[in-house]
Design goal:
disordered N terminus, 27 strands, disordered C terminus, seven-stranded mixed β-sheet, elongated, about 45% strand, mainly beta, five-stranded mixed β-sheet, about 400 residues
């Protein structure tokens, strides 16, 4: 069996794909010892990435770069005749039109042709997608930074929520690429709706999910920034949104990376998802009949108050295609669950469910493929507005 030594990430050897019948003799136009000289770079700062590799025989070589969607970004070496031996190629982080590739991961493939036979170096399916662990995840309240460390270059998502079966309240990063080692992500301590500041809560739960990248991947890092301390006592005017991957736009019909055999579908396996569709939905929450209400204070609950999920048409369509369940929390404590979610979804909050005073109601949607979204609203139950339910 032909084996290519794909050592870019220090991984074990991985197989190549051979097109056509075996040639006469035992020598194929093999590509081996592919090594990236760096695993991440910033092309917007003029940096480049280079690979070393070896050809077994004199051959015609084509090397290509593909993005996370498997769309062709750049042909860095096209049909070049090379002798047998060691070679080097480089990519400046730009596409064929000179546009800088946005932050994310990109994979290298190399085709070698000789004697009417083709060998393709592409260990993407063989080496990518292992669920890996992040360590030392913690929140520095003074600096407004989530700190964590990755064992391997990974595609990751960070959920922030409350322990003890509490709700997930914010998605900090949503399947972005990060290199191995220590990292920080800026967070202001608030939930997605900027209703709950829970960064200093003893129940804070930081969940980091990471999939190891293939050995033929390199990462375009985001621009270097100076991180400022978070403003924790009020909502910052420039509060960051969810960090999601970005992609270059290409005309329809752009060439795609030839793939190996498809894996069997696995629930919650985000590595297998379409990168353009795999994200946590942005969920809103509206009190029906209070659209014209002014001010930013809590809503008074003196009578049953209908609360409705509010999503854009695109998010609603995606969520319904996936199917989901809706979970409702009062002050971070489970209250109600609709296992077969539907849209539009409306739930009635009754005064007797609350004790007198101010409360937070949180709606969380949980897709059957592992996508989450939440939104919260503040409410006030005045004294004398019904009798609280027993046990609340």
């Amino acid at each position: 069996m032909l084996v290519l030594l794909a050592m870019a990430f220090g991984a074990a050897a991985s197989p190549a794909t051979v097109a056509g019948k075996s040639p006469v003799g035992d020598v194929l136009p093999a590509v081996s010892d592919v090594v990236a000289e760096r695993l991440s770079f910033r092309p917007q700062s003029g940096e480049k990435v280079s690979w070393r590799y070896r050809t077994a025989v004199a051959s015609t070589v084509t090397a290509s770069i593909f993005d996370g969607r498997d769309l062709l970004v750049r042909v860095v070496l096209k049909g070049q005749d090379l002798p047998a031996g060691d070679h080097r190629l480089a990519w400046d982080g730009r596409d064929d039109d000179g546009r800088v590739a946005p932050p994310g991961y990109y994979v290298l493939t190399i085709e070698s042709q000789a004697g009417g036979k083709t060998v393709r170096y592409d260990p993407t399916e063989a080496t990518g997608g292992e669920l890996t662990q992040a360590s030392a995840a913690r929140y520095d309240t003074g600096r407004g930074l989530v700190n964590y460390a990755l064992q391997k270059p990974s595609l990751l998502r960070i959920h922030l929520g409350l322990k003890d079966d509490g709700p997930l309240l914010r998605t900090l990063v949503d399947w972005v690429a990060r290199s191995a080692g220590e990292h920080t992500e800026s967070w202001d301590g608030w939930d997605a709706s900027h209703v709950i500041r829970f960064g200093d809560s003893p129940k804070l739960d930081i969940q980091v999910w990471a999939y190891a990248l293939p050995v033929n991947a390199v990462i375009v890092d985001p621009p270097a920034t100076t991180l400022l301390p978070a403003v924790l006592k009020s909502r910052p005017a420039d509060s960051p949104t969810v960090t999601r991957p970005e992609f270059l736009e290409f005309p329809r019909g752009r060439p795609t990376r030839p793939k190996g055999a498809a894996r069997a579908h696995e629930m919650y396996n985000h590595w297998q998802h379409d990168r353009t569709r795999c994200h946590n939905p942005i969920v809103g929450l509206k009190a029906v009949g209070t659209e014209s209400r002014g001010g930013s204070g809590p809503l008074t609950v003196a009578a049953p108050l209908p609360l409705r999920l509010d999503l854009t048409p695109e998010e609603a369509s995606s969520l319904q295609d996936e199917r989901f369940e809706a979970v409702i929390y009062v002050d971070g404590i489970f209250e109600f669950e609709e296992e077969q979610g539907y849209l539009p979804f409306t739930w009635s909050l009754k005064p007797e469910m609350l004790t007198p005073g101010e409360h937070v109601i949180t709606f969380m949607v949980r897709g059957y493929e592992g996508h989450f979204g939440s939104s919260s609203i503040r409410v006030l139950r005045p004294k004398g507005a019904g009798t609280p339910a027993i046990g609340r």
